[in-house]
């Protein structure tokens, strides 16, 4: 079935098992496949209509990857020599995730990958990293974050492309002002510690020490945000100030703190640190959860939820897709 035919098939319901098998075949055929391998794949595809649908998604994914530079596309299909290695499992997981979202989320994924791979400094999913810049400024990057650093004689600029950072501003006599920029605006610290997070169309700012001057991109009006306050802004306006959530910077200590947080909100945050998919059944989405959860060990966090609350974790696709459901 050609990749370009039958758009209705792309949106048809495909079983997770068929998607996983298609991903396995895709990884296998990308690395020294024999004529027998290709024949076996054709036989698998023809043996079940679900297989044909899953393979069409795989072909469409290959078409999409072909529009990316090789340095961006290859990590998606990369695999270690050992067919049973963690590298192979990770490659299959990435492919399954992408096939689940083709074509709806392709544009967003493609943009995010480009942002990450072309940035000066970046972190992978689940990674946290602290760097010290030339002026002594310390920047801690959260999971899947990317920044550019542009220091000149007149300005010290950090561009947050994606993700989240905690900044402790440094100082060099006679150096230009330090600024952090996102598409929504510019933040200029006034000797401070502050947290910045990028969302799809907005930026959140929490000031932990000192103060930060914020100027939205489409506004000439600057606003001073003092220590203990947080806000969210887009290119036009700044939202009303709120008291900084004490749990906001817990990620820098490897923790996710929840105080009567909805289960679906907690899982959304936890998912930032995982390559696999975690979903919540709507019937338990509003369940209130409290606790301190390790973001560096999401499996342990899921075990903590299952052992403490009336939910079970149903695993599909060999653990790549997990759904929290009511305990029966």
From TrEMBL:
Residues 20-61 form the FecR N-terminal domain. InterPro entries: FecR, FecR_N, Ferrdict_sens_TM. Residues 120-213 form the FecR protein domain. This is FecR family protein. It comes from Duganella dendranthematis.
